[in-house]
Amino acid sequence: MRNAKNKMELIIHPHELTDRWIALAKELKLDRVSIHPIGGMNAHETLQELLKTLKDENFRAQIDKLTNSGIEIGYEFHALSYLLPRELFSEHPEYFRQDTTGKRTTHGNFCFSNPQARKIICINAIKLAKELYGSCNEYYFWLDDAMHLACNCDECKKHSFAHHQLNLMNEIVTELQKEIPDAKICYLAYYEGVAIPEDISPKNGVFLEYAPFERYIKPETFAFEGEYLELVKKIINFFGTKNSKILEYWYDNSIYYRRAGNKLVPFTPNNEQIKADLEFYKDLGFETFSSFACNLCDEYAQLFGEPDFSAIKNRKI
Ligand SMILES: [Zn+2]
Prior knowledge:
This protein is of the alpha/beta class. It is built from twelve helices and ten strands.
C-alpha cells in the first residue's frame, strides 16, 4: 500500500522533456518530474539558458502536458552565482567570499556574512521563482557546485558552512513567502552541507534534501553505517521528516556520460540496491524519493533501447 505522503520523482535535463519522457512519467506513476540544467561551476550559465527555454511556447506546452495529467513540475539547480551576479565584484568585492589566502574571489558562493549581498540574493530569488513556468511550490536554489566554497573572512569563520547555508535559506524563504505564500525551499545536504547547522533553526518552509553524492564518487569508502549514519539521522531529526527528500543517483547516466568524454553509453541500474534503498530511506523517515535520470534521452533510447526502470515501476511505497 502506498503512503500518500511518499512521492517519487525523476530529474532530467531540459532538452530531454519530450513526449517519450512524458509517457514514461505516466507509466512510472511519477508524482513529479524535475528539470535540472547541467551543474558544475558554469551552472549559472546553464540556468540562464533554461530561463530562455522557459519562454518558448513549445517547451511550455510540454510542461502543460505533465501538469494537466496531475504530474508536478519542479526545477533543481545550483543557483548562487546566478542569484549574486559575478559582475558586481568590481564595485562590491566585499559581497564575495575570501579564499583561504584571504583574497576576495568570484569563484563560487559569496560572503555569507554580508547582509547587502544576502538582500540581493533574496530579491533575485523571488524574480527567479516567478520565472519557473508551472513550478510546484518547492524551490531548489542550491549553492554553487563544488567543495571548499566557504568564505574565510573573520566574520564567516565564526560559523560553519551548514549554519550559513541555513541562514541564507531562512532569509530566502521568508522573502519568498511574502509573494508566494506557500513557498518552500530546500536545505541541500551535499558536500560540506552534510552537517547539523549550529545556533540556528530552520524557518517554516525550509525542508531537507539529502544527496549522498560521496556514495558515487568514493564508493570504496562510503557506507551508511556508524558515525556517518548517526549524523544523517541527526540531520533528519534536526529538519524534521515533513517534505524531506532523498536525492539519489540511481538512474544518473550523466556520471558515465562525462566519464566517456561526453558520449552516451549503455546504462544498467542496480535494481537490488534501488529496492533496498527505498525501504532504507523510508525507514529513515524520508517522504520523497527522487533520482537524477539524466542522459537517458530519446537518442539514448534509439541507441540502446529503453532503460530498465522496473525497480521504481514495481515499487511498493
Ligand atoms: Zn565572509
